[in-house]
Amino acid sequence: MDLSILLVYGLSLAAIYGLMAIGISLLWSSIGMINMAHGASFAVSGYAAWAVSTAAKPLILAAFGKTLSGTIVMAGLCLSTGALSGAIMGGLIYLLAFLPIHDKPNFAVRSLIVTLAINMASVQALLWAFGPKQKSLPKIFGMGKIEFLGLSVRYDQLGTIIGTTVILGLLLFWLKVSRKGLEIRAMMQSPEGAVLSAISVRWTALPVTMLTGALAGLAAVLLSQTIFVSPTSGAVPLIKGLTIALLGGLGSVPGAVAGAVIIGFLEAIIGAVPFLGQRYVLFGTFLFIITILIIRPRGIGGLLDKARK
Amino acid sequence: MTEKTFFQIGQRPQEVTLPVSGSEPLDRRRLPFTRRHLLKWRSRLNPKTLRQERILADKKPLWWAIALVFLALSAPFLSNSALTVVSIFCIFSAINVLWTLIIGTAGIFSLATLAVVGIGAYCSAALNVYLGLPWPLMFLAGGLSGLVAGGLLALPSTRLDGLYYALLTMGVAEICRVFVQLLKPLTPCNGSINNVIGFIPRDWVLQRPGLLLGFAGAFVLLLLSLLVFRIVNSERLGMLLQTAREDEDFAQAAGIDYRKARMQVFLISSAGLGVIGAFYAQYYGSISPAIFSLDQLMLLFAMIVIGGLGRAEGAVIGTAIVVLIDKGLLDLGPLRILLVAAIMLLVTLWTNNGIAGAREQFRSWRRRKQSEARARRTEKGGDVMPEEAIEIHDKQAIYYRRFDKRLRDHLKTLITPEMIAEHHRSPLGQHSDGLSRVLNYFRRGDVTDKYAIIRQSGGQFHAYKIVAFSGVRGAPPRLVDDRIHEGINEAYHAVFLLRVNDLMES
């Protein structure tokens, strides 16, 4: 296979996995919750974007016709719906899995169980409401290829890579400069210290859950350019996101990015090697992650003594 | 002697008690080859009836026996579909009981339970189908393969902790599923092994006798896994690990190698899970990669979470609930999983440790509420708090203080400015009803801190001061204040005012 296609494919996979993994990692390090409902946020936002785009399609066609501006409006609508519904799912997770039990004993395990229940419930609810049939989102980046520095890139791959980079850049910038970002970073460093500095755990957790939900929603819209939306479509991104967050070291944003890039390229390479092929992708990545975790128990970016207990 | 009857108050009437005859020696039979007794009888003297009696201190074995006997006896009367549900319940309970051993007793948060079961099932089924291994040896093969799989899984558990290990083991299940589906010989039938010849004869399969035999096997499996749980959890290994659970550093300092104990428990339960896998393959006559799927694992996890992590009864209760909903209410469709998820959510939000821990949680909640209510009722110097009561040997004193508190509360309501004026007018002689009650109460008071009037010597004839007795023989009374009262009636009234003041402040 051509090396350039491999590079682009690996990067686009890395971008989407990075969005999922950073959400999980951020949530764990700031409020100590493993969010198993991240996949549910993913699937729900995919469906929300699908529903809104099918409803708005005639309107946009009537207003703009098949023009570039129409595609842009559609893209904006899809992305904002995905982000918004993801944020609403995040709020729901906050209300169910964080607020009632965050000061009770055994919070880490109990929140994991609650988010797992939310995941099961929302997958079944989607299955019930929309049926098992797959839905496809509109191509928000249009169809076609461009030649870029000698590489042949599909529009959706390019859009995914650029979109993710912009979103992650904005997120990291916001974390760096804003007041709320400072509070979140303080919570990541030391929850007790943050509380002693008059940072409210409850009011910091709400934006974090909503933000990570929105990230999952964006990932859903972006990934649905290549795969379809289905009730169980959240399972694979969830598992991938979790394992990449583990590989990068839970709580480490650079680690998560590095892990996403490594796994993205590993998948692209395993898929491209002739005698392995697509069927061994999951197998190979898991073996790789297990090996890395046995060598470095806290992942790539995690330090043994600094990790959150 | 007439038999005295008491009001049925509290929980004592519900206790299972046996009368003890004084002429017969106490019979304490042990289980053969062990030092254990079947039931935990405790002898004690009933302080009310003044008779010796025997109380069943731990009623759990009774409930277990009732439930299991009921299950076994009801099976022949069930319909075919219900019999299948009950058999599945037995198999999953057995899996969950052993899983509880891993999560609760060993404290290793492993999610690879179904993976170990599947490995045991696949190995034994493959040996049976391709090499013609007879079915009794399948259990051995399953157990051995489970032991090997458990050994491999146990290696990283010492390096990784908690959630890292949990997520890693989830990945292991996924690897197993993909591996089985990719195996070349199994590709024609989509990764499953069919036509396993097990303990159910070929022509009985899906017939009434076959189902009954399958249930009997599953029931025996459940009993065996409960036995393993009892032996591991409550004997030496479990005791060692309980110390480690409470304080790892202390356990290490006390010379307990808790890592080794954890490994042993993990290996024992993995071997058990392998045996269950062999049974699973025989019961269904086939094994498919669905056993490694995430959905199945989540359902299993829901079972032990609803029941309560770390307790055998929790594992069984949770399995009963989830299997009943998932397999018993088939016509509800996808609503079943929603129901399971809702139960899981509610149980996790409301209880600290599942349904099995709910009783304990309710009791501690009730105790807290009771003590709060007591604290509201009791003001300073009044009633005896229960914590204090157990240290007062003379129980009469407790009731006296309660009576005294109520009396004082009543007397406080009687004291009015008019009454004080009445005492000021005539400290001695006939008084109104209220005042005489108050004065009677004052006269009955303890000698300690009782007030007395002392006449001043040295030229002052009608000058009085007020003192308070120390209550200790030989220690002189102390002066209350320096005020000098002119006339005995003034002094009487001053003492009265002091006592009223003390009463109102108490």
| Number of H/I helices of chain A | 11
Poorly predicted spans of chain A:
304-309
Low-confidence residue ranges of chain B: none
Query: Could you say which structural class the secondary elements and strand pairing of chain B correspond to?
Result: mainly alpha
Mean pLDDT figure of chain B: 86
- Secondary-structure element string of chain A: HHHHEEHHHHHHH
Q: Which two chains form the greatest contact, residue counts included? A: A-B, 41 and 37 residues
Percentage of helical residues of chain A?
over 70%
3D shape of chain A: globular
Number of domains of chain A: 1
Q: What is the residue-mean pLDDT of chain A, rounded to a whole number?
A: 83
Q: Give the class of chain A from helix and strand content and strand pairing.
A: mainly alpha
In angstroms, what separates the terminal alpha carbons of chain B? 46 Å
- Total of helices of chain B: 18
How would you classify the quaternary structure?
heterodimer
Q: Percent of residues of chain B in beta strands? A: 5-15%
Rg of chain B, Å, rounded = 37 Å
**What are the secondary-structure elements of chain B, in order, as H or E?**
EEEHHHHHHHHHHHHHHHHHEEEEH
Largest sheet of chain B: 4 strands, antiparallel
Number of domains of chain B: 3
